[in-house]
Fold Glutamate-1-semialdehyde 2,1-aminomutase.
Amino acid sequence: MTPPPRPTERSEALFARAQAVTPGGVNSPVRAFNAVGGTPRFIRSGRGAWLTDVDGNEYVDLVCSWGALLLGHAHPEVQEAIAAAVARGTSYGTPTEPEVELAEEIVGRTPIERVRFVSSGTEATMSAIRLARGFTGRDVVVKFAGCYHGHVDSLLAAAGSGVATFAIPGTPGVPASSTELTIVLPYNDRAAVDEVFAAHGDRIACVITEAAPGNMGVVPPLPGFNAHLAETCAAHGALFISDEVMTGFRAGKLGQWGLDGAVEGWRPDLMTFGKVMGGGLPAAAFGGRADVMGHLAPEGPVYQAGTLSGNPVATTAGLATLRLATDEVYERISLVAETLGTAAGKALADAGVPHVVQATGTMFSVFFTGETVTDFAAASTQDTAAYAAFFHAMLDRGVHLPPSAYEAWFVSSAHDDAAVEAVLEALPYAAHAAAE
Ligand code: PLP
C-alpha cells in the first residue's frame, strides 16, 4: 500500500535557496541525496529517535548525525550540560576544566595514554599522520581502499597500478605530490600488507585504517587483521594508527578496540576519535603512546594547534555523553541494531532482493549485493538503484536511512520500541520497492 504523499514544499524551497548560495545546496556532499535522488529533507528538530522536518513530517532517524548521537537527539541531561556551559561562555582560548575531564575519561576508556583535542575527525587523522611522520622521521603512509579518514589531501588517494606502488589523487584539487607518499591497499588483505612492507618497510611512517570500516558500509576486519597490522608496524618501526572516529564509543563501550585489541592483547600506537565523543558538537581527538604524543608541540617539535580545539561547550557535551554511555546504553543499542538488521535481512530475503547484513558490535549496514563484503571491490558490486528505491520507500513511510548504499546505519539508546516498530512496519514495503 502506498502511503499518502508527505508534504515537501518547504524542504524543496529551502533546497532551491541553498543551491543558489552553497555548492550543491549542502555543506557535506552526501546530504544532497545525489546517490538516491530527490530532495533532502531539511530538519527543524530532533527528539530521541525522531526527526521533524520543516514541513512537519516525522522520521525515525537511522543516521543519528552519522553516528555522533549515541543517546539520540536532545538528550535532556546532555542538553542541560550544554546549556550550563553556554551560560558561562562559549570559548576562551585558554585551558579549561572540561578538557581535562574529557581527556581523563577518554584515556580511562581506551588504550591511549595521552590525548589532544581538535574540532573534526579530519583534523584528528591529519594531525596523527603528521605526528607519525615527525616521530618516525619517515614519509610513507599506507591506507586501505574504502576506508575514509576525512578530507585530508594525502588520504584522498586512489590505488596506483600495483599493490606496492604509490597512489594517485582521488579528487581534483589534490596535487600528485600530496599522494605520492601514500600507498593504498585492498582492505583485509594481509598479503598486500606484507608485500608493501617488504618493498618499502624502512620508509613507512604509519599504517592508518578504520578500526572497522563503516564508510563503505560496515566491513568487519577479518579475525587477526588489525593484530597483523599492529605486529607488522611494530616489526618495521612504523606506527599503527587506528581510526576510531566512527567506531569509538559506538561499536561498543571500548569501541572496535574493545572487540579485538582488548581481547587479543595489542594496542594501536595512535588512535583517532570524533563523533560520539563530541556529543553532537564539533570535537574530535587523537591520542596514543605517551612517548609518541610527547613529540607534539609544545612538549616536542611537531607543530599542531587549533583556535577552538578543546572548546568548553563541545567538550562538556562529549563528557556528558560519555558519562551517560553505560553498559545498559550499549545493550539497548545492540538489541535495536540486531533487531533492525535481522528484520531488514528478512524483508529483503522475502522480496528476493540480493543483500548481506554485516555488523561489528553495535554498528551494522545492509549491502545490496549477494556477496559477503570484505573489501571495497565487493562493496562496489551493490545494486545502488535498488537501494535508492528502498531508501525512498522508507522515507515515504517515515524512516530516514543514510542517503547512500555505502554507509552504516546508526541507532541510539533513544530508539525505543515505538521507533523500532515504525521501522519494522516500513521494511517489507521498502523491500518490495527495491525488488521492482
Ligand atoms: N575518520 C572516520 C573513520 C570517519 O568516519 C570520518 C567521518 O565520517 C572522519 C574520519 C572524518 O571526520 P569529520 O567528518 O569529523 O572530519
In short: The mean pLDDT is 97. The chain is about 35% helix and 15% strand. Residues 113 and 290 are 5 Å apart (CA to CA). Residues 66, 120-122, 125, 148-150, 210, 215, 243, 245-246, 274, 284 surround pyridoxal-5'-phosphate (CB under 6 Å).
